[in-house]
Amino acid sequence: MNGEPLAYRMRPRTVDEIIGQEQIIGKETGLYRLIQSGRVPSMLLHGEPGIGKTSFAYAIAGTVDKRFVTVNATTSGKKELEDIVHEAKMFGEIILFADEIHRWSKLQQDYLLSYVESGFITLIGATTENPYHDVNSAIRSRCNQIIKLQPLQPKNIYQLLDRALRDEERGLGEFPIQISEEQLLKIAHGVNGDARSSLNLLESIVFGSSKDSDGTILVDDQIIEEFLKSKGFNHDKNGDYHYDTLSGFQKSIRGSDVNAALYYLARLIEAGDLPSICRRLMVIAYEDIGLAGEPWKTILACDAAKQVGFPEARIILSHAVVELCLASKSNSTYLAIDRALADVRSGNFDDIPAHLKDSHYMGAKEMGHGINYKYPHDYPLGSFGGWVNQQYLPDRLVDRKYYKPKDAGNEKRIGAIYEKLQGFKKGK
């Protein structure tokens, strides 16, 4: 056995050896039948690191038995692409696998366009980023398919591990290994759908285990725990998955699902990104809880979490998340400002009423500014303080109603005051 990592040696050789991704390339899919017929469309593959993008491309190339060239966009230059194009012109179609394709400059991407269109190059690009954000639109338009690979389920990871243990040619089948089904499942559940990590972790566990007098490798739970722990939690704070996690976090709180919100919070805590957590919690407090609850409490919680830091901050954050999940909710103020912004941005505005204009400078009164302004504090209104009926909105917008109160939590009281004042304006 050579020194190549197990994950490299166990790459699927054809699409029939791909485990998982059945919804994309299972035997009943059009893509599977297309590839089996010898045709490969240009495509973009995206997904988390270790999810199998490179293996997917290798399996396709192995199925159609065409020349397959790989480049890494972080290191390849235009000269390398020119050499690949020259080879394609001389000997026919090449399947070009470009890893981290979003790293190519616009010049490099543009250079390939005509050769992809003409069929000299079949492009399979892979990226950990969202191709709709980070890949040149011209390249995207030449790719027949944009495919998001999904993290493998533990049952799929188990299949990969079991195959590697049985394969005597590429895997670990030549070694006498004593490992139970339960232990394989523990590994499968501990890698977060990362196929590459699972295989390389298995290899480390096997060769890190002790042997009995007969040379049998004895895998015990302690070794598995040790290597799983050392692997750590992989979470790219700048990647799409980070923002997807934040999105799931906010939507779970908005939907009052305490358990889902705590799960996403746990992932963000493990990523160690306290600023992102606090920023999102403060947005949630005012966007989704709003006047119905007490968003100021979240500000205090976030300030406290920042002061104490991890690991204790997890307690404060958990408290804040549960409270937000179960709080009464209103998005009335969020909708109100967006309605007002829509008027401003569409040009639907008018001059400020003269009596509201600044009158604290010489000549202001001669311009009519501030005249007839009524100071609300001079007009007591019960326990409310002071209020007087006068026009504040510009003439063209005088009847606009941006704020529409909701009958939820604390906003029931605030909304009732609003409606009463609106009634006073109409003389009711």
UniProtKB/TrEMBL annotation:
Check the record and name the PANTHER family matching this protein: ATPASE WRNIP1, WERNER HELICASE-INTERACTING PROTEIN 1 FAMILY MEMBER
Entries under InterPro entries matching the protein: AAA+_ATPase (IPR003593), AAA_assoc_2 (IPR032423), AAA_ATPase_RarA/MGS1/WRNIP1 (IPR051314), ATPase_AAA_core (IPR003959), DNA_pol3_clamp-load_cplx_C (IPR008921), MgsA_C (IPR021886), P-loop_NTPase (IPR027417)
Keyword ATP-binding, does the record have it? yes
Highest taxon of the lineage:
Bacteria
User: What processes in GO biological process is this protein linked to?
Assistant: DNA synthesis involved in DNA repair; DNA-templated DNA replication
Pfam families for the chain: AAA, AAA_assoc_2, MgsA_C
Residues in AAA+ ATPase domain copies: 39-152
MF GO annotations: ATP binding; ATP hydrolysis activity; DNA binding; enzyme activator activity; single-stranded DNA helicase activity
UniProt family annotation: Belongs to the AAA ATPase family. RarA/MGS1/WRNIP1 subfamily.
Signal peptide (UniProt feature, chain positions): none
* Alphabetical UniProt keywords: ATP-binding, Nucleotide-binding
Its recorded name reads: Replication-associated recombination protein A
